[in-house]
Specification:
single chain, Growth Hormone, Chain: A, 22 helices, 0% strand, disordered N terminus
Length: 522
Amino acid sequence: MENTISESQEWKFKINPWITMIPIMLSIFMFALDETISNVALPYMAGTFSISHNESTWIITSYLVASGIVIPTVDFFSRLIGRKQYFILSIIIFTVASIICGFANSMAMMLIARIVQGIGGGGIMPIAQAVIFEIFPKEKLPQAMAVFGLGVIMAPILGPSVGGWITENWSWPFIYFINIPFGIICYFLTQKYVEEPPYSRKQSNVRMDFSGFFFLATWLLTLQIVLDKGNDADWFGAPWICKLFAVSCISFIAFVYIQRKKAKTGDGLINLSILKNHNFLIGTGGQIVLMAVLMSSAAILPSMLQRLLGYTSFLSGLSMIPRGLGCFIASILSGILVVRLGIKPVAVIGLVTLAIGGLLFGEINTNIALANIAFPNFVFGAGMVLSMVPLSNISCATLPNEAQTNASGVQNLFKNIGAAIGTSIATTMISRFSQMHQMMMVKTLNDTNPVFTERISAISSAFMSQVDPATAAHMAQGQIYRLLNQQAALWGYVETFRYYAVAVILILPFVYFLKETKHEKN
């Protein structure tokens, strides 16, 4: 251990860190983009493979589950074959799997390809984050993390719009084929510009933790199924959901027990003792909530526009562009503000901005145009970067370099779980709030309400030029019922956006307990 620490202290990176950032950021953007780029293309793929929409969602789920299983094992495989070699291998696997995805002619082939793609992609993000923390001096880290945050946050936001444009102008296989040139470029640039310090090279006597890997895979797979299908099955009202959730909980407990037991010998997949670090624990907790808000909002906003306003997949994806612009501007401001104000004040500004964005979304209605959601989206994107980047920075700033790979693996594991849970909760909230508001509004639709009777009369009169009075009255009631459903659904989305603001505000007090290093203070 002393040798490792002394090597990490003596090792000096020779290549300009901003040059090293080029292949790192390309690989991050490529991986993060594929988390959401398939969303708007699912109807087209469902038609190609002759499957239902619910079955097509496994194209997304399989990728998330596979990458989620691999992410916490990154430190183990880095020790097994060397971190740089594992990073390059991950890029190759991801790129080859993308080619197979594009040529898939059946659902089975697509699922296998997406699982392999997730296995490759899962190794990219944690290693990239660890490398960035190592190659930059502490005083330059805020600017580097701002660029890193831009890729991590902006790519999933741009995914639906890029996927929608490609699908409508070419065809859905090209959403995977675009990874080929980026993968090839990343491979050669990584070979040339990413250095490998002594502590990240291949280690001897590293043994595979098969039991830990089994329980990790079982835990994440069953959890993802519960989160994906729970709302459709009425959650714990369905016996099979209860059984699957029990299996998930038992597997989680077994995995934690095994990792704690093997931590003494260093044979475990991950080292959970990293959670004892004060900053890491609080910073990771904050990022879990932020990832839940980011990924769920990116999923429900295009869905709302398609469901309530009849937008096409491309236009609904285009609605996310202002959020990307907010992310871009905030990433520039983040590096500057952290140097001038300190990391904690910037995190507070970001969280308040993000909460304001959630409240602005809570004021939308069905009469809005695409331009009317541009400003709330811009504020939302800016707040996301200004809050997540400082939290990412400060959470790992007090850790030694040799702990960064394990820390980033653990952190990204919990962030992935947060994104899955957040999306599931948001879907459930929309469903429940819609039902609640429908019950509240339907009470006013009776003959004792003069507004209701006047509206029925007016609509019936318009229909009577085409049909008889009885049919006209029936058609008028049907139209009112459709409006009721539309308004109830709108309120479901509105209430959910407002709860985003509440969730973000709850993080604010915890920022006070974070400890800044001397390089992060003003």
